[in-house]
Amino acid sequence: MNKELLSIKDLHASVADKEILKGVNLTVNKGEVHVIMGPNGAGKSTLGGVLSGNPKYAVSQGEISLDGESLLEMSPEERAWAGLFLSFQYPTEIPGVTNATFLKAALGEVRRHRGLPELSASEFLRTAKSKLEYVEMDKSFLSRGVNVGFSGGEKKRNEIFQMAMLEPRVAILDETDSGLDVDALRIVGTGINRLRTQENAIILITHYQRLLDYIVPDFIHVLHDGRIIKSSGAQLAREIEEKGYDWIINN
Q: Which residues contact 81 (CB under 8 A, 6 or more apart)?
């Protein structure tokens, strides 16, 4: 049985005619957690944006496939329907749209694409309440505007709640740990762990080891100057914490 979920081959991408990704290769299998680390400007967030289909990035070369289907042929919406999820480094506020309304619409589209019936209002509410427990959020969050007036920690917890509701095949979490205090970090890390299954995969983009105190990855990849220059196990993050990136870049 094929375990490969996401395949990236020789990916080159640019923004405003400046090449950022210069030949990224990565294979992500079912059940795996991969961590992308690297210095500022290495291309980490660009990789997340390209995978999700952000139109500001232009792909000039390479292939990306999810479950054997080319993502490059899909719109951002189609990628989401196919099971790709991106949490934003800076989650956007959407005034006038409640979390419940936003998620019910998004979940309805995903379920329609998967050939599943739309959840009734009571089924949606029951599911949402159970998923809110993953990130220790009160049901009152459902009636609040999407991220409006949320603290930094609440915004990041809300992203993980959205992930829990949408149940993506591959989740890309872009610096989910940035700006989190100790308690919020624990809640987010524990929530992500609860969403790990043998059928999905997670890509964490981060600068720091601290989130990995809660989530043990299968692989750490160091991205530098648009390429993955080193891949290893979970211990690599601690080595980076102790030595920085120069020892990898210069060796």
A: 109, 110, 113, 114
- Mean pLDDT value across the chain: 92
Going from the C-alpha of 152 to that of each of 35, 132, 178, 185, the distances in angstroms are: 22, 17, 9, 11
Phi and psi torsions of 17, nearest 5°: 65, 10
Dihedral through CA 46, CA 48, CA 51, CA 52, nearest 10? Answer: -110
Contact 103, 167 (CB under 8 A): no
> Could you read off the pLDDT of 85-99 as tens digits, one per residue?
999 877 888 999 999
Instruction: Kindly report the pTM of this predicted structure.
Output: 0.93
Q: Could you give the C-alpha distances from 148 to 144, 158, 241, in angstroms and in order?
A: 7, 11, 34
CB 10 within 8 A of CB 62: yes
- Nearest CA among 102, 110, 57 for reference residue 85: 110
CB neighbour list of residue 21: distance below 8 Å, 6 or more residues apart: 11, 12, 13, 14, 43, 46, 47, 50, 226, 227
Of the candidates 131, 107, 133, which has an alpha carbon nearest to the alpha carbon of residue 120?
Answer: 107
What's the one-letter identity of residue 222? V
Helices 99-113, 121-132: inter-axial angle, 10-degree rounding: 110
Measured CA angle at 179 (ends 224, 55), to 5 deg: 55
pLDDT score at 2: 63
Query: If we measure between CA atoms, which residue out of 149, 150, 55 comes closest to residue 160?
Result: 150
Distances in Å between the alpha carbon of 149 and those of 118, 160, 184, 231?
Answer: 30, 17, 17, 39
C-alpha span between 51 and 55 (Å, rounded): 11
